[in-house]
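Q: Sequence in, structure out?
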Amino acid sequence: MVRNIASNVLGTILPSIAALLAVPVIIHSLGLSAFGVFSLQVAMLFFFGLTDLGISRAIVLLAFDNRFNSGTGWVRPYRVGVRYTTMMCGILCAATPLVLVLRYAHPRGVDLHDMIVSSALIVPSAALMLFSLPQRAILEASEQFFRLNLIRGPTAASIFIAPIIAFQFDKSLTSAAVSILVTRLISTAVYFFCSGAAAVHFRGLGSFAGMPHSELATLRKNFLHRASWLGVTNLLSLAINYVDRFVLGALQSTLAVGQFVIAQEVVTKLWIASGAVISAATPRLAMVKHQPDFKLMKSTSRHLTRLMIWTGLLPALGLMLFGEVLLKLWLGKSFTQASVFSLQVMAAGVGLNNLSQVNFTLLQVFEGEFGGAMLQVFNLAFAGVSLVILIPKFGVNGAAYAFSLRLLADCFIGRYLLSGKHDAASELGVSNRFLIVVAALFAAILCVCYHFTAV
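A: Exactly. Output:
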C-alpha cells in the first residue's frame, strides 16, 4: 500500500506544479475577471467529469466480491459500469444548449460570446473525462498505480498547460476550452488502450455469455445500489466543493471569485497527497475486510491514520503558518492581501477533513453508502445557508469561514456514522478526542493569524 501511495503522490506532483506555475500566467493573459470565469468553467469540468454516480468506485469494490465477479475480477463489474457511464455521457452532451442561460449572467470585463462558446466546449470535455473513469477504475482495482499515474499526471497537468500554449495564438476563453477538449480526446484514448479495456471490448473477454440470468440480475442490482449512493455522495461532494465560487460570484463579483480561487487553488493542493493515500488504501481495505482475522483491518486502519497525519494534517499546519510567504512567492506582482487569511482559514478546514477521510473511507468499505450520502445532503444544506449568511458580512473571508465550518461539522458526523456501522468501529479510524484536539489547536493558530493580519 505504501508503494502504491508513493506512486500516487509522484503522479500528482506534475499537475500540482503545472497548476501553481500556470495560474499567474492565466491571470496575466485573461485578467482577473475572466480568470474568475475560467475557474468556474474548470469547476464545471471537474463537477461533471468526476461525477460518475459512483460507477468507478463500485467497480473497484465489486472487483473483490466473489459473489459477483465469478473469478473474473474487475471484468464483469466493468462491463456493467461502462454501459451506465456511456448513457450518462450521452445525456450530458445533449444538455449542451443549456449554456445559453449565460446570456442572462454577463460579468463585466468578459466577452459574452467568448464566455458562451467556451462554456459549450467544456461540456464534451467533461463527458470525455466521465467516459475515462471506468478505465481508471480498472487500473485501481488491479493496483496498477504506476501505470495509472503515468497517464493521470500529464492528463491533469494539461488542463492548465494547454491553455497557456493556446494563449500564444489567441488570448481568449474559447482558445483555452479548445485546447482542453483536444487533451481530453487524447487522454481518453490512452486510458482505453492502456487499461486493458480495449481487450475486453474488441476480444469479448469476460462477456456475460454463460452467466445465469439470475446472477447477472443480482450483479446489476447490487452494482446500482452501491453506485447510486456512492454517486449521490460524489455528486453532492463536488457540488459542495464548488458552490462557494458560484454563490460568491452571485453575491459579490467575479473579482471576489478570483481572489477566493487564488487561495483555494493553493489549499486544495493539500488534498492531492491525502487523495493519493485514500486511493491506494481503498482496494486494500476492501480486500482485508473479507479476511476472517479482524486484526488485519485494525492494523491497516492504523497505518492509514498515521499516513494521513503526515500527508494531510502536517502540511495543512505548515500552510497556515507560512501561507502569506508562499502566496507572495507564487503570485509575485499579482499578489493580493485579500487572499491571505482566507487561505489560512481554509487550510485549517482541509487539515481536519484529511483526518476525517479515514473514517469516511471505512464507512464506504462497510457498505455505509447511504449514511455517506445523507452526510453530504447535510453538508450541502449547511454550506448553502452559511455562505448566504457569511459572504454579505465578511466577503471572501466569509466564504472561507463557511468552507471550514462545514468541514468541521463533517468530521464529527462522519465519526458518528462510522461508530454505528460496525461493532468494532470504535477501534478503527480517527477518534473524536483526537479531532477535538486538532480543531482546538487550529482555532488558536487562526486567532493569532487574524491578529497579525489585522495589524
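The chain has a mean pLDDT of 80.
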